[in-house]
Design brief:
Layout: H1 8-28, H2 32-36, H3 49-52, H4 59-69, H5 99-103, H6 108-115, H7 118-134, H8 143-155, H9 177-182, H10 185-194, H11 213-225
InterPro entries: PGBD, PiggyBac_TE-derived
Protein name: Transposase IS4
GO molecular function, one term: sequence-specific DNA binding
């Protein structure tokens, strides 16, 4: 019998089917030992030789190139201030103040007593004598002595000597008549040892400034009561 010859399309289809059947059959026949064998994967290097030459470029140059090419939209534009100079005298700004407050202030002593009044001096005397009594010492500190004591502290702030006792020495280069005639050296040191502003037996343990708290509170109210003098007056 004569069979019709197959067309090229049918031949291609038959070959493809045979190839797939052979591939599937070969996979099924692979030995398990072959699957456990380690393999090596080799990647083909497609990198151009020109790219590898960039390894010799310093990182600082690469970073400089990147920063120069990056957008600078986030940078703030600096506004240059323009000053107009005027040749003229300074004009003082005088704040309003109550003239009645200053009419009674005739000198430095009166201004000092405005802040360290008799009530505050008496409080210092009371607390200092109380502390001296707790230490079994004499309780005979007087009001005028506390005023002289504070005056010596203020005076020694701008007339300084290497040692405090030199203010009472008879040497011409250190002796100070104003201090020596207002309070004796021993009396000053006695008050210095027992000066107190608060009762040690009744202190707020949580307040680190409890011993000087009465001074802060007193001066705070006095600063509010007496307006400050402007430096331009």
């Amino acid at each position: 019998m004569n069979f019709p010859s197959p067309s090229l399309l049918e031949i291609h289809r038959i070959c493809a089917m045979r190839y797939e059947e052979t591939a599937v059959e070969s996979k099924r026949r692979i030995n398990g030992n072959k699957l456990k064998v380690s393999t090596e994967i080799v990647f083909e290097n497609d990198i151009d030789d020109d790219f590898s030459s960039e390894d010799d470029v310093p990182l600082s140059q690469i970073w400089k190139t990147l920063t120069n090419n990056s957008p600078k939209s986030s940078a703030k534009k600096k506004i240059k201030k323009i000053y107009q100079w005027v040749k003229d005298d300074l004009r003082p700004i005088l704040d309003h103040f109550d003239e009645e407050v200053y009419e009674t202030q005739n000198g430095p002593l009166q201004r000092f007593l405005n802040f360290f009044d008799e009530d505050f001096i008496q409080m210092i005397v009371t607390e200092s004598n109380k502390y001296a009594q707790q230490r079994n010492r004499k309780t005979n500190i007087k009001n005028f002595e506390v005023k002289s004591f504070i005056g010596v502290l203020l005076f020694s702030g701008y007339v300084q000597v290497p040692r405090r006792r030199m203010l009472w020495e008879r040497e011409q280069d250190t002796y100070n008549k104003l201090i020596a005639e207002s309070i004796s050296r021993d009396r000053f040191e006695y008050i210095l040892s027992y000066i107190h502003l608060a009762d040690n037996t009744n202190l707020d343990q949580s307040d680190k400034f409890a011993k000087v708290g009465p001074l802060f509170d007193h001066l705070k109210y006095k600063f509010i009561e007496y307006a400050p003098i402007d430096h331009c007056l």
